[in-house]
Here is the input.
Amino acid sequence: MKAVIFSLFVLISTLASSQTIYNFKVTDIDGKEYNLASLKGKKVMIVNTASKCGLTPQYEELEKLYQTYKDQNFVIVGFPSNDFMSQEPGSDAEIKEFCTKNYGVSFPMMSKIEVKGKEMHPLYKFLTEKSQNGHSDNSVKWNFQKYLINEEGKLVKVIPPGTKPLSEEIVSWITAK
Here is the structure.
């Protein structure tokens, strides 16, 4: 019996560790399919965003971070969400216009999704459940929480919403070999 339980544990651990962001396809802000497998070999920051939040000015630093490191195998993927005090009420078209006009956002932005609750997007279930990501159980605390994904598509760090995109913690992770 112990051998069976151990074998099941090993199987579950193997399945969890084989999951990556590359298993997911999402919809971009223009309504087109975006296969996260296209990001293989890059460091990725996934961030849930909102246009009417006290942290919204982080868009400026996110864009600067992206422009600085996009040619060094780094990409930011933004996921607008209205899950926190209805701070992202607009349509995808309105969100895109706001981000472009006010912050010059050029990093990939996806269609608005839910990042918590019963309707949580499957990607965020992966990001927040250790049984899927092999790293940690966590919850999305607020807008602009950042998930750092390594070149193999694995979650390696969760950064709190208040941490600025140009923080030493994030920049040193991007630049580490």
User: Anything to note?
Assistant: The beta strands are 25-27, 33-35, 43-49, 74-80, 146-149, 155-159. The two ends are 44 Å apart (CA to CA). Helices lie at 2-18, 58-69, 92-103, 122-128, 130-133, 168-175. The longest helix spans residues 2-18.
